[in-house]
Amino acid sequence: MKRFNEKVMNGDAEGIKDLIQEELDKGTAPQRIINEGLIAPMDEIGEKWKTGDMFMPEVIMAAQTMKAGLEVVKPILGENMETKGVILMGTVAGDLHDIGKNLVKMLLESAGYEVIDAGVDVSTETFMKEIEKQKPNIVGLSALLTTTMKSMEETVRAINEKYDDIHTIIGGAPVDQAFADKIGAKGYASDAGGAIEICDKLISA
Amino acid sequence: MLVIGEKINTSRESIKKAVETKDSEFIRKVAREQKEGGAHYIDINCGTFIDNEPELMEWLVEEVQKEVDLPLCIDSPNPEAVRAGFEAHKNGKPMLNSISGEKERYDALAPLVKGYDCKVVLLTMDDTGIPTDAEKRFQVAKDVIADLKDGGVKEEDIYVDPLVQPISTDTTNGLSVLETIKKIHKEFDNVNTTCGLSNVSYGLPQRKLLNQTFMIMCMTEGLNGVILDPTDKKMMGLVTVSNSLLNKDPFCGQYLKAYRDGLLEI
After folding, report:
1. Using beta carbons and an 8 Å cutoff, which residues of A are at the interface with B?
2. Which of B77, B129, B205 is the closest to A55 by Cβ?
C-alpha cells in the first residue's frame, strides 16, 4: 500500500486508478484500499502541510487525486462504504464567500468524511431543513465577513436549541475561539487541517 | 497611483488592543508612520467590533485626523458606521470602502455615496457571488458604475476593486484580475482601479515575492490605486519604480527623489 503514497502526493490520478485495479484484482478489500491507500496518504500530506513542508496547491492536487481514486472504489462498496461521519457545511446567510468552505470540504472528504455542501448565503431555515434531511453528525459554518458573524451566531444557536447530538463547528477569517465559545459552537479551527482534527475529536468523543 | 494605507484595521491584534484600551497614542503613531511611508489615504476598519462599530469608527477618524492631514478611507459595509465616519471626517474628500453589486449592500450604501462628496471603492461581486472570470467582474462593475453616474457620482471618484483571490486554490485567479483591470481602463476613460494584493499569495511561501510581482503586473494593466502597508519600503519603492517605467514620472523626478531619500532598496 506504500506505493499509493507517492502517486497521491504527485497528483498521478491515472497511476492511482491503475494501482487500485491491481489491488482489487489481488482481492484486497475495497474498504482497506480506501483507508490505507487513499486516506492514509492524505493524513501524511496533512502533517507535511502543517509543518510547512507542503503547500496548498500541492494539497489540493493530492486531494483531487485521492478523490479520483475514491470514485473508482465507491461504486463497488455502494451503501456499504464506511465513512467517519456525515458533515453538513455552508457559508452563512448574507455571505457569498466559498473558497475557504470549499477547501475545508475537500480536505474533510479526503480525510474520510461524507460532506454535504449547502452552498453559500445559507439561511438558518435552510440549515435546519438540510439537517432534517441529511441527519449530519457535524454542521460546519463558514463566514468571511464581520457583518455575517451575526448570521452565524443565529444559526448556531438555532441548531443547539433543537439538537443535543449535533456538533456545530465554525471557521473563517473574522471568527476565533472566543467567538465560538460566546455563541456556543462546539468547535473552531483556524485552518482546514485544524478542521479535520476538530471533527475527529468531536466524532470520537 | 493612489496609495491607501491598510494598517488601521481591528482584525490586526495590535490595533484591536489599542481600540479596546482607547490608546490614541498608538493609533496616531500608526497613522503617522503610514503618512511618512507615502500613503495618500489612511484606511480605517473596525468591523470586528460588531456591536459598537459606528461609535469606534467616529473615535478612530477623530484620533487619526488629530495626527495627519490625509483624507481617510472609511472601510465598512455598515451604513451607520460609514455615516459616523463621514460625519467626523474633515480632511478633504473621504473614500468609502466599499460598495458592491450585492443588492442589500448597494441599496444601503448608495445613498451615502450620492449624498456625500466622496470617493468610492466598488467590489466586483453581486448576489450571485464573486465571479471567477474577468467578463462577469466587468459586467458587475459596469452596471454599478452606470447607476452611480446616474446619481451624480463622477467617474474619477470611482475605484473598481476586482477582488483578488488566491492562486493557490485556482491558478486562473491572477489572470482574471489582470484582464478585469485592463478592460475597465479600456472601457472607461476616468474610472480608477484599486486592489488589495496579499490575497493572491494566500497558502504559498514567500508571499511578499508574489505580492510584489503581482502589483507590478497590475500596474502594467493600468491599476492606479492600491491598498497596502506603506511602511513596507520595498513595496513602496516598487510603486515608484513602476510609475517611472510606465511613463507616469516626467523626467524620472519621483524615481530620483526616492533614490536621494534612500527609499530604493534592491
Report:
1. 52, 55-57, 60, 94, 96-99, 102-103, 120-121, 145-147, 149-150, 173-174
2. B205
Please state, in angstroms and rounded to a whole number, the distance separating the CA atoms of residues B82 and B87: 9
Tell me the backbone φ, ψ of residue A142, rounded to 5 degrees.
Answer: -120, 145
Spatial separation of the C-alpha atoms in residues B264 and B266, rounded to whole Å: 7
Kindly determine whether residue A174 and residue B47, on different chains, have CB atoms separated by under 8 Å. yes
ipTM of this complex: 0.85
Beta carbons within 10 angstroms of residue A125's beta carbon: 11
Q: If DSSP codes are grouped into helix, strand and coil, which group holds residue A109?
A: helix
Cα A125 to Cα A5: distance, rounded to the nearest angstrom: 42
The pLDDT tens digits for B94-110 are 999 999 999 999 999 99
User: Given A55, A96, A97, which is nearest B168 (Cβ)?
Assistant: A55
Q: If you count them, how many residues does chain B have?
A: 266
Where would I find the beta strands (DSSP E) of chain A? Answer: 86-91, 114-117, 138-142, 167-171, 187-188
Q: Which residue of A has its CA nearest to B126?
A: A96
Nearest to B50 among A103, A121, A146 (CB): A146
Q: State the fold for domain B93-229.
A: TIM Barrel (3.20.20)
pLDDT one-digit tens code per residue, B188-238: 999 999 999 999 999 999 999 999 999 999 999 999 999 999 999 999 999
Question: What does the domain layout of chain B look like in residue ranges?
Answer: 1-92, 93-229, 232-266
Q: How far apart are alpha carbons A37 and A29 in whole angstroms? A: 11
* Nearest CA-CA partner of B9 in B75, B80, B87, B98: B75
Largest Cα–Cα distance of chain A, in whole Å? 55
Beta strand pairing status for A187-188 and B192-193?
Answer: unpaired
Sequence length of chain A is: 205
Average pLDDT over residues A157-177: 95
Task: Supply A15's cell numbers.
Answer: 497511476
CA nearest A140: which of A186, A82, A84, A204?
A186
Dist CA A150 CA A158 (whole Å)? 12
Q: Mean pLDDT over residues B2-13, rounded?
A: 96
Q: How is residue B129 annotated by DSSP? A: B
At B127 the three-state DSSP class reads coil
Strands (DSSP E) found in B127-179: 158-161
Strands (E), A35-189: 86-91, 114-117, 138-142, 167-171, 187-188
Angle at B252 (CA atoms; ends B185, B37), nearest 5 degrees: 80
Cell digits for A203?
466524532
The pairing of strands A167-171 and B119-126 is unpaired
CB B235 within 8 A of CB B201: no
